[in-house]
Specification:
mainly alpha; globular; binds zinc ion
């Protein structure tokens, strides 16, 4: 995994910071307590890490991309929760649908086009399988 050091949006310096410094008390509720986040010190673009590590899930995201990642996550979570399967099974299914390795299947690291594919996939599948 490449190191994140320079922001792809503004060229600003990216630093690894505690999740609490960004989310404050919400970090606990978000399941981010004690986790680290890569954050551009200039424009606030950011990306979370694999749990308990400093390995980024993907590239830093500006606000537009962050909202898209959240939207994709909500669509995906709603779908697999309705299936009553495990999180592991759900991600395996998603990786197969997207034809990407399961260890690369992290919505928190997806780009706009990948997020859009997740949203469309979940809409389509949700309609058909319900
Ligand atoms: Zn930046």
């Amino acid at each position: 995994m490449k190191q994140l050091s320079v922001c792809r949006y503004c060229g600003g310096v990216i630093r690894l910071v505690p999740a609490e410094s960004i989310f404050g008390k919400r970090a606990k509720k978000l399941g981010m307590e004690g986790e680290q986040v890569y954050q551009c010190q200039n424009c606030n673009a950011r990306v979370c890490c694999h749990k308990g590590t400093t390995r980024p899930l993907g590239n830093v995201a500006n606000e537009v991309l962050r909202l898209k990642r959240i939207e994709a996550h909500e669509a995906f979570d709603a779908l697999w929760h309705s299936w009553h399967i495990s999180r592991t099974q759900a991600y395996k299914w998603l990786s197969q649908q997207l034809r990407i390795p399961v260890d690369k299947t992290h919505i928190g690291g997806f780009e706009m086009d990948e997020c859009q594919r997740v949203i469309e996939l979940c809409c389509k599948t949700g309609d058909g399988a319900a």
